[in-house]
Each structure stands twice: as structure tokens, then as C-alpha cells.
Amino acid sequence: MAEEALASELNSFNAQWDQICCQLKTEFGATAFDSWLKPLTVGDFKNGEMNVCAPTAFMKNWVVTHYADRINKIWEQRNPSIKKVNFVVQSGFSSRRSVDSSLLKQISSTPTPQNVYGSNISNKDFGLVSGASLANDTVKNNAINNAAPLNPNYTFENFVVGKTNEFAYAAAHKVAEAKNVSFNPLFLYSSVGLGKTHLMQSIIWHIKKNDPTRNVIYLTAEQFVFKFVKALRYKDTAAFKEQFRSVDVLMVDDFQFMGNKGTTQDEFLHTFSSLVAEGKQVIISADKSPTDLEGIEERLKSRLAGGLVVDIMPTDFDLRIGILQKKAQLMGIELPLKVAEFLAQKITSNVRELEGSLKRVAAHSQLLSGAKEITLDMTQDVLKDMLRSIDRKTTIDEIQKKVAEHFNISVKELQSSRRARTVARPRQVAMYLAKQLTSRSLPEIGRKFDRDHTTVMHAVRKVEELIVEDPTLAENIEILRRTLEN
Ligand code: ADP
Ligand code: MG
Fold first, then answer.
1. Is 121 within a domain?
2. 146 and 226 fall within a common domain
3. Do 80 and 154 share a structural domain?
4. Which of 24, 285, 366, 372 could form a disulfide bond with 196, CB atoms 3.0-4.6 angstroms apart?
């Protein structure tokens, strides 16, 4: 019996891990996922701690530096009984997934070191060369080398300028035009989906068109680290340095993934300094300003902040309308202004999501034969689920307020440390509802109540039990849930 329970527990962890993998793949992209995350397997679970196993120590360290926080967060959201995820090197247990795709095997299967950084290597290996198309043949056998190809739509012409991004646009355009470097580096930052990659690639297209002899390397920080680690492994750092230091423009996207490795950051700093000293342009993007970057050495941060630092702010309504119209035009669809206004009003998080919703509506209109026109009704219908979840974005503050009202206590009491049942029970209910109705993590919820995440976890479990045992409380919670959802 105990064995059966154990087996079913393991099965459910495996099933959860599969779902988590889907999410990680979407968040980090197929290349990163296949290289680093796919080979991971679920290990033992004991005292609230889950072991996730990597096939090698190298891989484990990489995962810990780059993905551990995110994996911890997602597990915790999916299964509050998991308090902590430990990353370990695979021991004797049987693995469900083949580790064939592990990074180390990829490296080892590369025939000779010369093939990694041979003397004749072209910049194609770095994802982009100005003046040459991205050929698959040089990179066929190595997923990591195969940087995402440039998106032909990411041009200045297709970038819609508004109040929140005009400065970033102007700076990017200036750098693309300039023969002489005026600010170095250009550092672009914003939260996700606001156009950093679009602007970076616009610069490249511009240079390719107007000054094709200029040698550009564009890659993500993750790729930089990977290449450096590989060069170190083959004791071939000279070729690595040579490649990077002979460019005219070096562009590194998503700098936040530069990792914590001292040697890699040192190498980047050297490359950076030598390029700047020679008057070559460096362009960096990240999700935070140089000073706020985590895990980056102070002297590197201060160098990064030494040029022009520009941020892209969240979009405003007018810009969202402009972007929708531009995207509709590019997609060749008629978008009634009413529908554009509706979408611009509802989907405010970022441009990527805005674009995603437009694509869904467009696909739907094209699938319905005869009913090709996009209408407001149809849009509302197609985006029903998405809009419902946006509308339902209840805040923890609101939950505290409603729960306090319902149980006739004050919000202050709800947040206080008083343990009397009349206060403690409503507090647990509020924590439970916060977990159910918002996407906040346990620590975030905890902070709102001045408690740590274990207290929240305990509250959630307690209320789950009480719902079964105490129909009156269950009913109260149901009423609260409905008020909060409306
Ligand atoms: P980031 O790199 O900041 O996460 P991206 O550059 O990938 O964001 O942008 C996400 C999507 O939004 C892309 O499809 C991009 O074309 C689009 N986008 C963002 N800002 C604009 C803009 N101002 N005009 C047109 N498209 C935009
Ligand atoms: Mg990007």
C-alpha cells in the first residue's frame, strides 16, 4: 500500500514536472530548453524538498545560476507542498528522460576543437554577420550555436514610436546611422515584451542595408557565456577573443543572463573595454538598468552605465492603438477602430501579448469562411478566457478588504499578529483566497500579511481541510470568492 502511494506520488510529481517543462519551454525558448532543462529529471521528495537531477555537475551549476529561481517559483505555485527544489547531480535512480541531448554530450561530440573555433570560422557562428545571410550549414549540429535568426519584421520602419519609447528609438536609430561612435555603450532596458529585441534587430537591418561592410555580432548573453565556456573547455580562448575583438559592432541581447560566473564576466569586460577603446560600438539590452542588474560585478555594472542608458516604459493607450494598426497592416487584415480600441484598453501588459491577441482574432476570422470580417463581438468571444482572467485580476488588498468586511474585523486586525480565532481564521481565509485568485507567489502573499511563506502555505492547507469539514465556512468562502470575482 505504502509502495503504491509512493508510486502514485512520484507519478504525480512527474506529471507536474511535464507541465512545468511546457511552461519553461515557452518562457525560455526551445533552444535553451532542449539544452539545459529537458535533460533534468525528477528525483526524491522528502520533507517538502524536491530533488531535481541534472546529468552532470556542469549542467547542474548552469541550471542553478540561470533557471533555479524560476523553477522554484513554478513548482511552488503548482504544488504548495514543495517548499524547496534542490538541484543535484544525477545518481543511481532510473531516469525517465534520455540525457542524450545534454549539453556536455553536444560538446563532446563536436569532432575536434578546431571545429569549434577554427581559424577560418565566420561570424555566422555567432548568429549574425552583417552582409551575409544566416546559413544553417555551419551550425546544423549544434543547437546553441544556432542563434535565433533575425526577424525580417523587426525593422525601424515597423517600429511604432510613441511617448514611452521615442527616446530609445532615437538612440537606436542614431547608433545605427552613426559612423562615429557618440555614446558607448548604448544600454537599452525595459521589462519583457516592450521592443528591445525589435530595436536591436532594427539596428542590424539598418547597418546591413546601408553599410554592409561593417562587421556586426549579435547574440544573447546566454550564447556569449556558452561560447566562452566552450572555448575554455577546449583551451581555445585565443580564437574566442580574436573573434569578438575584431568586430565593428557588438550587440548583446538579454544581458541579465550573463550569469554569475566571474571568469565569463571578466572576459566580457575585457572584450568590452578593448572594443570601446578602439572606438567600436557596443549595444546591450537587459530587463533592468545597469545598477539594478543582479549577479553582475560592480565594475562591469559601472562600465555598462558609462554610455547612454535608455529605458522603454510600458505602453500608453495611443501607442497600443498605433501598434495594433501597424501589425494589422503587416498582417494584411482590416482592423476596425472599435476593435483596436477595445484591445488597447483591455490588454495593457506588454506588446507581445497585445500582438498575440490580435493574431488570435485574425486567425479566427480567417478560419470562418464567409465571416471574415473582424467584429467586436467576435473579438470578445475569441478572447473570452483571456479577458476573463484579466478582468478577474483581484488584488491582495482587495481580498483583505472584502474578507475583513465579511468577518466584521478591520484590515489592520487581519494583518496584525493577533492569534485569536476570530481574527486568525479570517486571516487564513484571506491568504487562501489570495493564493486562489491571484497569481502572486507564497512569499509575496506572505509579505502583505507581514508573515513568511510557510505561514501562508499552512493557511492554504488549513482552509482546504476546513472547506471539507465545515460547510458554513465553505459557504462563506464561496460567497467571498464570487464577490471578488465580479
Ligand atoms: P523585448 O525584447 O523587450 O522582450 P520584443 O522586441 O521581443 O520585446 O517585442 C515583443 C513584440 O512586440 C515583438 O513582436 C515586437 O515587434 C513588438 N513590439 C514591441 N514594441 C513595438 C513597437 N513600438 N512597434 C511595433 N512592434 C513592437
Ligand atoms: Mg528580447
1. no
2. yes
3. no
4. 285
41 lies in the same domain as 163: no
Same domain (yes/no): 139, 251: yes
* Model confidence pLDDT, tens digit, residues 1-21: 455 555 666 677 888 888 888
CB of 190 sitting under 6 A from ligand 1: yes
- Contact between 257 and 265 (Cβ < 8 Å): no
Ligand 2 centroid to residue 201 C-alpha, Å: 10
How far does residue 155's CA lie from ligand 1's centre (Å)?
10
Omega of the bond leading into 290 within 30 degrees of 0 (cis): no
| Domain membership of residue 58 as a residue range | 2-108
Q: Which residue's alpha carbon is nearest to atom 1 within ligand 1? A: 193
pTM greater than the 0.85 cutoff: no
| pLDDT exceeds 80 at position 103 | no
Whether residues 409 and 295 fall in one domain: no
- 379 plus 401 within the same structural domain: no
197 CB less than 6 Å from ligand 1?
yes
Q: Please count the residues of the chain.
A: 486
Ligand 1 pocket check for 192: Cβ under 6 Å: yes
Is residue 98 domain-shared with residue 232, that is, in the same domain? no
Judged by its nearest atom, the ligand closest to the C-alpha of residue 354 is 1
Domain count, the chain: 4
* Alpha helices by DSSP H, 278-332: 298-304, 317-331
Task: Find the CATH number of the domain harbouring 340.
Answer: 1.10.8.60
Q: Choose the weakest-confidence range: 26-30, 125-129, 265-269.
A: 125-129
**CB of 124 shorter than 6 A to ligand 1:** no
pLDDT digits (tens, 9 = 90+) for 362-393: 988 887 656 578 999 999 988 987 777 666 66
> Strand 49-54 and strand 41-46: pairing?
antiparallel
Following DSSP, what letter does each residue of 109-177 receive, concatenated? HSS-HHHHS-TT--GGGGT-BTTB---STTTTT-TTTSPPPPPTT-SSTTPPP-TTTHHHHHHHHHHHH
Mutate to test the pocket of ligand 1, among 257, 352, 354 (most ligand atoms within 8 A of CB): 352
Neighbours of 157 (CB within 10 A): 9
